[in-house]
Specification:
- The complex is a heterodimer.
- Chain A has 4 helices and 2 strands.
- By secondary structure, chain A is mainly alpha-helical.
- Chain A has a two-stranded antiparallel ribbon with strand order 1-2.
- Chain B is an all-alpha fold.
- Chain B has one domain (about 5-70).
- Chain B is about 75% helix and about 0% strand.
- Chain B has helices spanning about 5-30, 30-35, 50-70.
- The chains are: A mainly alpha, B mainly alpha.
Amino acid sequence: MLSYAYIIYLFIPQDFFDVTKTVVVEGKKKDINGVCTKKDGDCKSTTIYDSRYNDMKTSMYLLGNAFRINQQKAPDNLPTVQAAKKFFKKMNVFERKVLGTSLKKEAKLSAASIYLEALDILDEYLDLVELPPTESGNYDKEFSTLVGESSRIT
Amino acid sequence: MSFSYFIYCIIITQFSYGRVQEAVHEFLLMGPAVIKDDLSDPTVQVSSKSIYVLYIFLVYALFELCYRMLI
Protein backbone atom coordinates (compact mmCIF):
# COMPACT_ATOMS: atom_id res chain seq x y z
CA MET A 1 0.00 0.00 0.00
CA LEU A 2 2.97 2.30 0.58
CA SER A 3 3.82 2.26 -3.10
CA TYR A 4 0.23 3.30 -3.88
CA ALA A 5 0.52 6.15 -1.40
CA TYR A 6 3.75 7.28 -3.11
CA ILE A 7 2.16 7.12 -6.57
CA ILE A 8 -0.85 9.08 -5.32
CA TYR A 9 1.51 11.66 -3.73
CA LEU A 10 3.24 12.13 -7.10
CA PHE A 11 -0.05 13.13 -8.70
CA ILE A 12 -1.27 15.49 -6.01
CA PRO A 13 -1.97 18.74 -7.85
CA GLN A 14 0.33 21.54 -6.66
CA ASP A 15 -0.87 24.33 -8.84
CA PHE A 16 -0.91 27.95 -7.89
CA PHE A 17 -4.32 28.86 -9.31
CA ASP A 18 -6.40 25.92 -8.09
CA VAL A 19 -9.32 27.33 -6.08
CA THR A 20 -9.88 24.04 -4.26
CA LYS A 21 -6.34 23.64 -2.96
CA THR A 22 -5.58 26.09 -0.17
CA VAL A 23 -7.48 26.05 3.10
CA VAL A 24 -8.26 29.66 3.93
CA VAL A 25 -10.52 29.05 6.94
CA GLU A 26 -10.38 25.68 8.61
CA GLY A 27 -13.72 24.19 9.64
CA LYS A 28 -14.29 24.02 13.38
CA LYS A 29 -16.07 21.30 15.32
CA LYS A 30 -19.46 22.56 16.45
CA ASP A 31 -20.66 19.59 18.54
CA ILE A 32 -20.00 19.13 22.25
CA ASN A 33 -18.57 15.68 23.07
CA GLY A 34 -20.13 14.34 19.89
CA VAL A 35 -23.60 15.73 20.70
CA CYS A 36 -24.99 18.40 18.40
CA THR A 37 -26.71 21.11 20.42
CA LYS A 38 -27.62 23.39 17.52
CA LYS A 39 -31.31 24.08 16.99
CA ASP A 40 -31.15 23.26 13.30
CA GLY A 41 -29.03 20.17 13.96
CA ASP A 42 -26.35 21.31 11.56
CA CYS A 43 -22.99 20.66 13.23
CA LYS A 44 -21.00 19.97 10.08
CA SER A 45 -17.75 21.88 9.92
CA THR A 46 -17.26 23.75 6.69
CA THR A 47 -13.77 24.49 5.46
CA ILE A 48 -13.32 27.39 3.06
CA TYR A 49 -10.93 26.76 0.17
CA ASP A 50 -9.33 29.16 -2.26
CA SER A 51 -6.31 29.30 -4.54
CA ARG A 52 -2.90 30.26 -3.22
CA TYR A 53 -2.91 33.17 -5.66
CA ASN A 54 -6.16 34.63 -4.28
CA ASP A 55 -4.84 34.20 -0.74
CA MET A 56 -1.63 35.92 -1.83
CA LYS A 57 -3.60 38.87 -3.23
CA THR A 58 -5.44 39.36 0.07
CA SER A 59 -2.41 38.99 2.30
CA MET A 60 -0.16 41.16 0.11
CA TYR A 61 -2.70 43.98 0.16
CA LEU A 62 -3.16 43.71 3.93
CA LEU A 63 0.57 43.60 4.57
CA GLY A 64 1.15 46.59 2.31
CA ASN A 65 -1.58 48.50 4.14
CA ALA A 66 0.04 47.75 7.53
CA PHE A 67 2.97 49.97 6.50
CA ARG A 68 0.76 53.06 6.51
CA ILE A 69 2.16 55.61 8.97
CA ASN A 70 -0.43 58.30 8.37
CA GLN A 71 -4.14 57.53 8.63
CA GLN A 72 -5.00 60.62 6.56
CA LYS A 73 -3.37 59.06 3.52
CA ALA A 74 -5.42 56.70 1.37
CA PRO A 75 -4.02 53.13 1.24
CA ASP A 76 -3.87 53.19 -2.56
CA ASN A 77 -1.27 55.98 -2.46
CA LEU A 78 1.18 53.84 -0.48
CA PRO A 79 4.20 52.57 -2.44
CA THR A 80 3.69 49.09 -0.97
CA VAL A 81 0.06 48.89 -2.10
CA GLN A 82 0.94 50.37 -5.50
CA ALA A 83 3.65 47.72 -5.99
CA ALA A 84 1.20 45.00 -4.91
CA LYS A 85 -1.41 46.24 -7.40
CA LYS A 86 1.17 46.31 -10.20
CA PHE A 87 2.01 42.71 -9.34
CA PHE A 88 -1.68 41.67 -9.35
CA LYS A 89 -2.14 43.28 -12.77
CA LYS A 90 0.71 41.21 -14.23
CA MET A 91 -0.39 38.06 -12.45
CA ASN A 92 -3.99 38.39 -13.67
CA VAL A 93 -2.64 38.34 -17.23
CA PHE A 94 -0.49 35.32 -16.31
CA GLU A 95 -3.48 33.55 -14.73
CA ARG A 96 -5.56 34.05 -17.89
CA LYS A 97 -2.61 32.70 -19.91
CA VAL A 98 -2.36 29.59 -17.72
CA LEU A 99 -6.08 28.93 -17.70
CA GLY A 100 -6.31 29.52 -21.46
CA THR A 101 -8.70 32.45 -21.26
CA SER A 102 -6.32 35.21 -22.34
CA LEU A 103 -7.60 38.23 -24.24
CA LYS A 104 -6.75 38.90 -27.89
CA LYS A 105 -4.24 41.63 -27.09
CA GLU A 106 -2.46 39.32 -24.62
CA ALA A 107 -2.12 36.42 -27.08
CA LYS A 108 1.30 37.55 -28.35
CA LEU A 109 2.85 37.76 -24.88
CA SER A 110 4.71 34.69 -23.68
CA ALA A 111 4.01 33.30 -20.23
CA ALA A 112 7.72 33.35 -19.35
CA SER A 113 8.07 37.07 -20.08
CA ILE A 114 4.98 37.90 -17.99
CA TYR A 115 6.31 35.72 -15.15
CA LEU A 116 9.71 37.44 -15.20
CA GLU A 117 8.11 40.89 -15.18
CA ALA A 118 5.91 39.82 -12.24
CA LEU A 119 9.00 38.49 -10.45
CA ASP A 120 10.74 41.87 -10.77
CA ILE A 121 7.69 43.66 -9.34
CA LEU A 122 7.47 41.09 -6.54
CA ASP A 123 11.10 41.78 -5.60
CA GLU A 124 10.29 45.49 -5.46
CA TYR A 125 7.30 44.76 -3.19
CA LEU A 126 9.28 42.44 -0.91
CA ASP A 127 11.92 45.12 -0.47
CA LEU A 128 9.24 47.65 0.54
CA VAL A 129 7.65 45.32 3.13
CA GLU A 130 11.04 44.44 4.63
CA LEU A 131 11.10 40.82 3.47
CA PRO A 132 14.17 39.15 1.92
CA PRO A 133 14.41 39.18 -1.91
CA THR A 134 13.45 36.13 -3.95
CA GLU A 135 17.05 35.18 -4.81
CA SER A 136 18.14 35.15 -1.15
CA GLY A 137 17.19 31.48 -0.67
CA ASN A 138 14.79 32.38 2.15
CA TYR A 139 11.82 30.96 0.23
CA ASP A 140 13.31 27.52 -0.41
CA LYS A 141 11.39 26.08 2.53
CA GLU A 142 7.65 26.03 3.26
CA PHE A 143 6.16 28.58 5.64
CA SER A 144 3.42 28.25 8.19
CA THR A 145 0.30 30.24 7.40
CA LEU A 146 -1.15 29.82 10.89
CA VAL A 147 -1.86 32.98 12.83
CA GLY A 148 -0.48 33.21 16.36
CA GLU A 149 1.69 30.13 16.12
CA SER A 150 4.23 31.91 18.26
CA SER A 151 3.26 34.15 21.18
CA ARG A 152 6.24 36.40 20.48
CA ILE A 153 5.82 39.43 18.28
CA THR A 154 9.03 39.60 16.30
CA MET B 1 -0.70 57.11 14.86
CA SER B 2 -3.17 55.91 17.48
CA PHE B 3 -2.40 52.98 19.75
CA SER B 4 -5.27 50.86 18.39
CA TYR B 5 -4.04 51.42 14.84
CA PHE B 6 -0.54 50.42 15.94
CA ILE B 7 -1.93 47.15 17.40
CA TYR B 8 -3.93 46.60 14.19
CA CYS B 9 -0.75 46.97 12.15
CA ILE B 10 1.08 44.42 14.34
CA ILE B 11 -1.76 41.89 14.05
CA ILE B 12 -2.02 42.32 10.29
CA THR B 13 1.74 41.99 9.93
CA GLN B 14 1.68 38.77 11.98
CA PHE B 15 -1.29 37.49 9.95
CA SER B 16 0.18 38.30 6.57
CA TYR B 17 3.91 37.58 6.78
CA GLY B 18 3.53 33.77 6.81
CA ARG B 19 0.93 33.80 4.07
CA VAL B 20 2.92 36.12 1.81
CA GLN B 21 6.10 34.10 2.31
CA GLU B 22 4.32 30.80 1.61
CA ALA B 23 2.75 32.33 -1.51
CA VAL B 24 6.16 33.59 -2.71
CA HIS B 25 7.56 30.10 -2.06
CA GLU B 26 4.87 28.52 -4.27
CA PHE B 27 5.22 31.29 -6.87
CA LEU B 28 8.95 30.54 -7.17
CA LEU B 29 8.28 26.77 -7.36
CA MET B 30 6.47 27.13 -10.67
CA GLY B 31 9.31 29.28 -12.12
CA PRO B 32 11.35 26.53 -13.87
CA ALA B 33 8.23 25.10 -15.58
CA VAL B 34 7.11 28.54 -16.77
CA ILE B 35 10.55 29.40 -18.13
CA LYS B 36 10.46 26.11 -20.09
CA ASP B 37 7.02 27.27 -21.34
CA ASP B 38 5.38 24.12 -19.92
CA LEU B 39 2.11 25.50 -18.57
CA SER B 40 0.62 22.04 -18.11
CA ASP B 41 3.18 21.21 -15.38
CA PRO B 42 1.51 20.21 -12.07
CA THR B 43 3.24 23.09 -10.28
CA VAL B 44 1.39 25.52 -12.57
CA GLN B 45 -2.01 23.92 -13.06
CA VAL B 46 -3.90 20.68 -12.70
CA SER B 47 -3.62 18.65 -15.86
CA SER B 48 -6.62 16.51 -16.66
CA LYS B 49 -4.25 13.62 -17.39
CA SER B 50 -2.79 13.60 -13.88
CA ILE B 51 -6.27 13.65 -12.33
CA TYR B 52 -7.34 10.75 -14.55
CA VAL B 53 -4.29 8.67 -13.57
CA LEU B 54 -4.84 9.51 -9.88
CA TYR B 55 -8.47 8.40 -10.15
CA ILE B 56 -7.49 5.06 -11.73
CA PHE B 57 -4.94 4.37 -9.00
CA LEU B 58 -7.42 5.25 -6.26
CA VAL B 59 -10.04 2.87 -7.68
CA TYR B 60 -7.45 0.12 -8.16
CA ALA B 61 -6.13 0.53 -4.58
CA LEU B 62 -9.67 0.42 -3.22
CA PHE B 63 -10.46 -2.80 -5.12
CA GLU B 64 -7.27 -4.44 -3.92
CA LEU B 65 -7.96 -3.44 -0.33
CA CYS B 66 -11.48 -4.92 -0.52
CA TYR B 67 -10.11 -8.10 -2.12
CA ARG B 68 -7.50 -8.56 0.64
CA MET B 69 -10.10 -7.98 3.33
CA LEU B 70 -12.35 -10.63 1.81
CA ILE B 71 -9.49 -13.18 1.68
